[in-house]
Amino acid sequence: MAHWTSIALLVTTTLTLGAVLPAPGMAASAACGDALVASVTLDADLVCGAGGLAVAADGIVIDLAGHTLSGTSGNGIDNALGFDRVTVKNGTIDGFENGILHGGGEKHVIRDMRIKNGVSSIQLAAGVRFAKIQKSLVGNNTGRMIEVFGDDNVVTKVVATNSSGLGITIYGNRNVVTKNTVANALDGIALSGTASGTIISGNAIANGRGSGIIIVLAGGTGNVVTKNRSDGNGDEGIIIFGADDSIVSGNTVIGNGIGIRIANAARTVVAKNVAVANDDDGIVIAADALGTVVTGNKSERNADAGVSTISTSSIFSKNFAFANGTNGIEGPDGTIDGGGNKGRDNALLDCSPVFTCK
Prior knowledge:
Layout (H helix, E strand, L loop, with lengths): L1 H19 L5 E2 L7 E2 L2 E3 L4 E2 L5 E3 L5 E3 L4 E3 L4 E5 L7 E8 L3 E5 L6 E8 L3 E5 L7 E3 L2 E5 L4 E3 L5 E3 L2 E5 L4 E3 L5 E3 L2 E3 L5 E3 L7 E3 L2 E3 L6 E4 L7 E3 L2 E3 L4 E6 L5 E3 L2 E3 L3 E6 L5 E3 L2 E3 L6 E3 L7 E3 L2 E3 L6 E3 L5 E3 L2 E3 L6 E2 L5 E4 L2 E3 L14
């Protein structure tokens, strides 16, 4: 009898311990100011002051498990030392100066997060590569919501709303910004510095005080802006300035100040975009834009011209302009007519004399 009693006691003790002990390498929870050397799952909300949790090892997972990490200043999750492969998931970060800061490292994951009421929600420093920011909500910031200084990162399926600053800002190279929604920011998605080889695709940007998608560079090349929708922004739906060899294709721009503007750029391809009911021109190519190919675009019901170029090095082909407030397709003498342009029901000329239009 004593033998069976001992076994039962051992089983009961083992089960009890198993229920409360964390798995190897996994902390049960954390406290404000902890420097984490193992993965952690929060078991309650954390209300901190200046600074939340710091990363002190590679490969850790910070699972907020539906809880909120809140504070007044500093960084909510601080990986300033740049450890690799840090995952932050499943919760809310509220009120810090920076919600999540990665000072370096590779292959970070930020997913299923709500990050709000700070200056910046997420910052990836110049040394960060191959990180993914996905399926998260950021907003109510006084500064820029997401900033990516590093190369080869992905921002996808993020909703970024209500910021005094920019929505998603990219400084590095070969980043991908796709399937995000940005609303009520200064500019929606911005490329800055010398960013090259970045793809901006399938995003929805609306109601910005500035431009929907803005690429203003000092030497960056080879960026692609494709299949985005940019609506109701105070300035341009899409603007390319100072960036060479860009592709702007398959986008829809509705109700912006100007639909699409290309300036101070060489060899831009503007193809198969739709510009509707913008407050100025639907598509405009500035005098300092060189060798711009404008083809297969549709521009209608804009307050000024449908498709316009001041640069005589532009090549226009297969564009259609309908019911615009001034001219349909316009350009100065010397502009290259690639053929196939069409205009109808525009207030002034359907096409400037330099173009043979149907």
